Amino acid sequence: MRKIIPDTANKLFEEVENVITPLARVVKLGIATDEERSRLEIWAICSVMVNGVDTPPD
Question: Using one digit for the tens of pLDDT, what is the confidence trace for 19-32?
Fold first, then answer.
């Protein structure tokens, strides 16, 4: 995978998690719309991809 600096990867991961958290909450409570469930799935994929980005060693 493309190498990026750790700070950027961490920032992206935090931003993705900030979107996922409220979506996951409404899905867990069973009150999510179809759109919210779809958005959660897409953002979860983004989270996995960002988390898998190689960063250079310290």
Answer: 999 999 999 999 99
